[in-house]
Write a structure and sequence with these properties.
Layout lengths: L3 H4 L10 H8 L2 E6 L4 E3 L7 E7 L1 E7 L5 E8 L3 E2 L1 H6 L6 E4 L3 E7 H10 L1 H38 L1
Antiparallel strand pairs: 1-8, 2-7, 3-6, 3-8, 4-5, 4-7
């Protein structure tokens, strides 16, 4: 269990009522990782959602030669592991701690029983997860267009 008062400082939980905060805090656990530690690896099974309380992580994809390429970094208040949390599929990236980090973890198996009892929690948290994914997609679209513009400019010049 996590102290519900500490959750108030995290934007991901800001729109929860006190009762909802109390309910979600009961199924969360605090988990710390040291700088350089791998939290999970690409293709690993897992259904946990992580919320960064303190510190910074990077998401990486493995190239065919085994080298890890950084996709993005995430910091305090951001989430990771949301895709496997939602769909139950294997992890899509490797997550590594860049600094010592403190996270709060929600297991899908612990979250699912809350769905019937607190449907508004489900709505609010899924809305926040969708906003996170939407932000990632927008960023990818921007980088893709920058790459296309760069390539187009090279061909024309």
């Amino acid at each position: 269990m996590v102290d519900p008062k500490t959750l108030r400082t995290i934007p991901f939980f800001m729109d929860l009522t006190d009762d909802e905060m109390q309910a979600i805090s009961k199924i969360m656990n605090k988990k710390d990782f040291g700088a350089g530690e791998t939290i999970f690896t690409e293709a690993e099974a897992g259904e946990s959602l992580y919320i960064i309380r303190r510190g910074e992580v990077k998401a990486c994809k493995q190239a065919p030669d085994g080298e890890l390429f950084t996709l993005t970094t995430m910091k305090e208040g951001e989430i990771f592991g949301e895709m496997s949390f939602l769909d139950g599929r294997r992890r899509s990236a490797t997550i590594m701690a860049l600094t010592d980090i403190e996270t709060y973890v929600i297991e899908k198996s612990d979250f699912e029983p809350l769905v019937d009892k607190y449907p508004r929690i489900t709505y609010k948290l899924l809305k926040n997860i969708v906003f996170t994914i939407h932000s990632i997609v927008r960023g990818m679209n921007t980088r893709y267009m920058e790459m296309i513009n760069y390539m187009w400019g090279r061909r024309r010049g």
